[in-house]
Amino acid sequence: WAYHPWPMTVQDGIDVYTSLGFTGDPQDPEFFTSDMSPVKPDSYLVSTGGIIDESVLRLSNWLPEEYWEHSRPRARAYYSDLVRVFCGMLGTPIFAKDDDVRSSSRWVTDKQVGVRLGGGATLVILTVDSPQRTRNFLDELEAEANGEEIGADYF
């Protein structure tokens, strides 16, 4: 998704995920499978008027709450490994946050497509934001740097 021409239609997104070997939900093709769930859709496209705003792909399995305390170190290590891979492809993130609960890193491609890696005790997800969503995020970062209070959730 990050290197596909934008704007991207829902059909373009479907073409991307099927080219990766994933299968859409017959009832709602904006939901699709991933390597973590090859049978039941666990990833999805978010669209407005048939144009994709973001695609969300699950990169790890979801763990039940009783395992969260013990899973966080392993999830953090997996997240860190993925950050290194993404840094090798996309360079240094423009935004990174890491605390005891969640981790998040964001990159912006040369085509102004946002790539966000998020991790917690329960799972790691990849979100690819459209250029418009990426511009909105960058505007919010600039406003915050200029002292304006914003309500963005960076995770």
Task: Report on the architecture of this protein.
This protein has three helices and seven strands. It is an alpha+beta fold. Strands 1-2-3-7-6-5-4 form a seven-stranded antiparallel beta sheet. The radius of gyration is 16 Å and the shape is globular. The mean pLDDT is 88.
Question: Which features does this protein show?
Answer:
7 strands, single chain, 7-stranded antiparallel sheet, 26% strand, alpha+beta, 155 residues
Brief synopsis:
The chain is α+β, with helices and mostly antiparallel strands. It is built from 3 helices and 7 strands; from the N terminus they run αβββαββββα.
What overall form do the CA principal axes indicate? globular
Secondary structure tally: strands:
7
Low-confidence stretches: none
User: Radius of gyration, Cα only, in angstroms?
Assistant: 16 Å
Please identify the structural class as seen in this structure.
alpha+beta
What percentage of residues falls in helices of 4 or more residues?
A: 25-40%
